[in-house]
Amino acid sequence: xxxxxxxxxxxxxxxxxxxxxxxxxxxxxxxxxxxxxxxxxxxxxxxxxxxxxxxxxxxxxxxxxxxxxxxxxxxxxxxxxxxxxxxxxxxxxxxxxxxxxxxxxxxxxxxxxxxxxxxxxxxxxxxxxxxxxxxxxxxxxxxxxxxxxxxxxxxxxxxxxxxxxxxxxxxxxxxxxxxxxxxxxxxxxxxxxxxxxxxxxxxxxxxxxxxxxxxxxxxxxxxxxxxxxxxxxxxxxxxxxxxxxxxxxxxxxxxxxxxxxxxxxxxxxxxxxxxxxxxxxxxxxxxxxxxxxxxxxxxxxxxxxxxxxxxxxxxxxxxxxxxxxxxxxxxxxxxxxxxx
Length: 340
Description:
- The protein is α+β, with helices and mostly antiparallel strands and 340 residues long.
- It has helices at 22-42, 48-69, 74-88, 95-111, 116-125, 130-144, 146-162, 190-194, 210-220, 223-228, 241-251, 264-268, 277-283, 289-293, 329-339; strands at residues 4-10, 13-19, 179-181, 187-189, 199-203, 232-237, 257-259, 272-274, 299-301, 304-308, 314-319.
- It contains 15 helices and eleven strands.
- Strands 7-6-5-10-11 form a five-stranded mixed β-sheet. Strands 1-2 form a two-stranded antiparallel sheet. A two-stranded antiparallel sheet has the order 3-4.
């Protein structure tokens, strides 16, 4: 990873900022310039390293996240900065003028378009609830290809009108059993999983889906906490083994990814849907689902998550035909605690 170092001398101490995001380099450079000026004016040079450290934390929290989320207004950013200044800056003299200049630079940076890959990476790195991170990807899709985003809206509207997913198992139902191959080709059954503890069973559309990758990453981030609760995790995808392995490797998971060929298990749960001719045409430009799935049906599972107790009874579930939304991780953990 490329690094950008800024060393500040002051009072016999040094402050170091290491910035990997190119966009944030401009923020830190500008913050550094104004921090030096303000400290000289206030006679605070000996305290410069500590001032810069606090200002660095402020920039990462308020500017970096705002740029990554691509939706925080400049007015809100300015209000946050001014509130921070009132609490922590050692001298108020001329600060508002300097703050306005920095705010304008931050606004310009936030308005610069990200590539889709940059937006996905920003969502991965964002310290926020899962659905806020997913919204970053959805916003990038709409900005880059509004026609595709509108087609997704039409797909979701059609599925919602048809009640897609409504007939899937609900809390209090017994989770139907399965026996599916994992990413190493070994057969994994629900009964064997539940012998070890309550289960998190999550359906993902495929390794190619950025929302699914981020969903899986969100679960990976708490897989140790889930393990400490005795929980077992399995992800189910309608993809051939090599793509399941690729997905597992890409997100750094320690739990198995199971292959549900031809969406057989998802169909039994009323979770499989045909994406429709319009989405088939649009997605076919970028994704080779025929190769990924081993068929040309263009069926996908509705992304869903079930929390199942050791007795096989569903404690909680999340089923939403809008694949841009998923079960938040805090809700998953809370349901798993209840299922123990």
